[in-house]
Design goal:
The chain is of the alpha/beta class. The protein folds into 2 domains: 142 residues, Carbamoyl-phosphate synthase small subunit, N-terminal domain (Glucose Oxidase, domain 1, 3-Layer(bba) Sandwich); 206 residues, Class I glutamine amidotransferase (GATase) domain (Rossmann fold), CATH 3.40.50. The protein contains 10 helices and 19 strands. The strands form 3 sheets. It has a 10-stranded mixed sheet, sandwiched between helices. Strands 1-2-8-6-4-3-9 form a 7-stranded mixed barrel. A two-stranded parallel sheet has the order 5-7. Helix 8 packs across helix 9. The longest helix has 14 residues. It is globular, with a radius of gyration of 20 Å. 49% of the residues are buried. The mean pLDDT is 97. It binds glutamine. The site of glutamine has 12 residues, from strand 16. The site of glutamine (GLN) has 12 residues, from strand 16.
Length: 360
């Protein structure tokens, strides 16, 4: 029996591969990530909602499935593509292999294709949609149909349904984490620093958030086109007037910029991986960062009370903003790392310092 399955790109390119994980037809936006490790964090990062993720590193899964490393309770990718998945993972923390995990989670996987060639196509053409199908007839139609796919209601689909509190041993700060699809490691980094973290759904209003009497507000990462979150953006405008310290990561960074009148744009193929260089503008120092985004804040559109604090050293796009009209700063990369380097975890200490100043 021929168990081949096909990946059909919106531009008509076809790759014939083999299935792993769950079986089924999927459409999604196809993106690549260059991280050599951190596949569990990638799979369970809610920011990948609606996307078919390609790992450029050729062998994935060799340390198995380790639930305590997850960034959320389950994988969110629409489908997962690797050159080769490891059938015999070896790690003392591993609880199983990738194939079984993806099957259990209902995530379609495809392996055995030239992921290097696929990545080159995405890099040249830019990000596009794709379909995975087992049906070899009608591949042209599959390509055509995938063109109209759009990721919709992304944040609403991944946010926590009800508030959730994580308490550290000793509470020094109370942080409201506005959950647009937050990675678990944001909470871990805050808890480590003595923060009680109250995670609230994306539909929360500024009034509800302020009624929790936060010492600081954390704007999380999350999926989709930032500009579509018009409700959150208008609530954010109000939060900005409260004087409570704000720290935004990735989608949170984009939403605060939008609330302050800046624009966002879609990048050609985004930044996804664990070795993206972010240059700190005041010092000129370059930090290696973990990233996963397809949109960016347009630097030229920032208001005069917003200072460009980081740029991507590869393409010069905006990677961070410090606001001078309020105690707020945001970054496009992931200081919480996971997977990736911890070079910029000092930004959480900076947030703590802002909260100290606010409390005093
Ligand atoms: N990781 C994120 O928060 C991603 C933000 C946004 N969805 C983007 O792709 O740019």
């Amino acid at each position: 029996m021929d168990d081949s399955i096909y990946l059909v790109l919106e531009n008509g390119a076809v790759f014939k591969g083999k299935p792993f994980g769950a079986r089924g037809e999927v459409i999604g936006e196809i993106v690549f990530t260059t991280g050599m490790t951190g596949y569990l964090e990638t799979l369970t990062d809610p920011s990948y909602y609606g996307q078919i993720v390609v790992q450029t590193f050729p062998l994935i899964g060799n340390y198995g499935v380790i639930p305590s490393d997850f960034e959320s309770a389950k994988p969110w990718v629409s489908a997962y593509i690797v050159r080769e998945w490891c059938q015999e993972p070896s790690n003392f923390r591993s609880e199983g292999d990738l194939d079984t995990f993806l099957k259990k989670s209902g995530i379609v996987g495809l392996y055995g294709i030239d992921t290097r060639e696929l990545t080159k196509i995405i890099r040249e053409h830019g990000v596009m949609n794709a379909r995975i199908t087992a049906d070899p007839s009608g591949l042209d139609k599959a390509a055509e149909e995938s063109g109209s796919y759009r990721i919709e209601d992304a944040v609403e689909s991944v946010t926590c349904p009800t508030p959730r509190i994580t308490e550290p041993g000793e509470e020094n700060y109370r942080v409201v984490l506005w959950d647009y699809g937050a990675k678990e490691n944001i909470t871990r980094e805050l808890s480590k620093r003595g923060c009680t973290v109250i995670c609230v759904p994306c539909s929360s209003t500024a009034e509800e958030i302020l009624s929790l009497r936060p010492d600081g507000i954390m704007l999380s990462n999350g999926p989709g086109d930032p500009a579509e979150n018009t409700g959150i953006i208008s609530e954010l405008k109000e939060l900005c007037r409260s004087g409570v310290p704000i720290f935004g990561i990735c989608l949170g960074h984009q939403l605060l910029a939008l609330a302050q009148g800046a624009r966002t744009e879609k990048l050609k193929y985004g930044h996804r991986g664990a070795n993206q260089p972010a240059k700190h503008m005041p010092s000129g120092r370059v930090y290696i960062t973990s990233q996963n985004h397809g949109y960016a804040v347009v630097s030229d559109s920032l208001p005069e009370w917003a200072e460009l604090s980081f740029i991507n050293a590869n393409d010069g796009t905006c990677e961070g903003v410090t606001y001078i009209n309020m105690p707020a700063f945001t970054v496009q990369f992931h200081p919480e790392a996971c997977g990736g380097p911890h070079d910029t975890s000092f930004l959480f200490d900076r947030f703590i310092a802002l909260m100290d100043a606010y409390k005093a």
